[in-house]
Records
---
Amino acid sequence: MKDALQQLFLAFHEAVMLFNAEIGLTNPLDRTRGMEASYFNSKLMQCLRAYFDTNLKRGKYGRMFLYKNGYIVLFKKLGKDGKPMNIRTKLTDSIENQLEGKLFNSDEDGSSPIIFFGYTKSRMGELIHPRLVYIDEGTVKWTIDESQITPENEVNMFTSVAPSSGHPVVKPHLKIKKKAK
């Protein structure tokens, strides 16, 4: 399973790079609501397919999931509480309670545990902190962070990419408080 987990994180970082390169072609003023989330999910599925091919499936309602080693992995942006950002419905509640119900087609095994592979979005709009999250009874039971799976030198390979020419470079600026005399 460790290999599969490493591949999830590699696919995530590849998708982020593709997404960043391609989303920049569309002016932010011209992007419709939900475009970025939908586009990133498409890039993520494209990269995951390179690693998992036939294990990547489409369930009911067009939801993409990965079925690997007896687990069902769903992909979502995560909120501050580490839970998927969803509009509350009976279906999302049943997923968070491991009662998947009508999520899958009749020929799929809907009794496997559901794990979320998620990420958060920074204030600057960066897609960061990919992790696996297991939710049951509406609460996060455990998470697996990238640093627990991938050696640190491989993580740094993606996080310390030098900007290409033509893009502004943001340098950190520290303000030092002056003591009142």
---
Amino acid sequence: MTQLVYDNLLASLYLLTWVVTLIWYHWRYHSLDAGSAIIGTYILYATSSILTLNDPLFSVSYNPLKVFPYIYLYVMLMIALLPIIYTHRHPSDTISDPSTRVLKIIAIISILSAILLIPEIIANFSSGLVKLFTDIDAGSENYMEQSEESEEAGHQITNLPAVIYNSIAEITIFLFFYFMTLKNKPRLLIIGLLIATVIGLVIPIMHGSRGSVIMTTLTVIGAYMLFRRYLSSKINHAVQVLGVGALIAIALPIAAITVSRFGNMNGGIFGFLNWYVGQGNLYFNNYALDAGGIRHGDRTINMVKRLVDPSTPKNYNEQREKNHNMEINDDVFTTFVGDIALDFGPIATVIIFVVFFGWILTQIRPRDGTISLHQLLLVYLTMCICMQGGMALFSFSYTANLRLITMFMLYAYLRYHDALLKRFPLTTISSEVNEEDHQTAI
């Protein structure tokens, strides 16, 4: 058996394992949800891995494959999926109302910060978005310009509205779908959150970046699949129609960027697409468990580490320069499992996954068919990590640690608020107030 045949056999078995997992996932519980979407993307990535593994140009990028890294990757991805699997097997019918105005305040902040980014879109409209369709080199030039600017990233705040917007980007999508589940829907806020999400898609497109657009799109798809059981059939239909139109609209500039950056290269557009989508599993297999060292959290807990160690790299350029002796880094994809393993090592990564996702699993059990919003937020966070990181890397790294921090701050507030409501129900307070008013009137 030649090495190529053996590698294809391993890659095909890995793909088959995820196909069997999808069948098992729906064996007794047939509803489509966030887990269906996540496992579906894993099947897509595994398929692309086989295609790029057999590409005459890109196959030379990979070393011979091994069995154990695939087993390790599958087990870790399944550990991360446990909260999603639990909610699939123990579905809830309703979301308890947290009875707080803070969610609307956060929505307003998100909308205002997005509106403040509109002048940047207008200023760069002709040289950014329009030029993508009129100049074949525009996407590549915009990407190179953005890459040069990234060398100063992490040192200082240069655009406060962008910092605020990016720090609550996932929360924006979460609130957009949650508000649509309410009986009395805040329509203006829903429209505003939709516009804010669209703005978050337009800006990276203008800079020639596909990654942020793909991550946001995956998050929206995963969020919809998570919330669809709580939405009315009318809203479900409207979201599906709008979603198909949005995917087509997003695909056009993404295609223009891809042609601009890779159209003239030897590998061809489809060769680069397969390499882009399928490389994560293969590079993980080759390097993630033994890359000649670890980064000691320089990437995945960057902002936390900078608090205790000022010499911590502030962006990916500095991090790559510091850890240049490692055989692989974040210049290629290794999935979010590989990204964390490169930071802490394979053994510590197992402990981190078991503790973190095990803790989430203990916090999300619904009561009487009702799930609290803070519980659903943890499930949503799990979905974001799995959906965004299955192909690429851990998406909450570097300054994106802020996004993780804000989500846990919102979780802590909602949980504390929910605990207070259970101890001091609003109905009890209202009845006491009404009784006092009645006695006063007498």
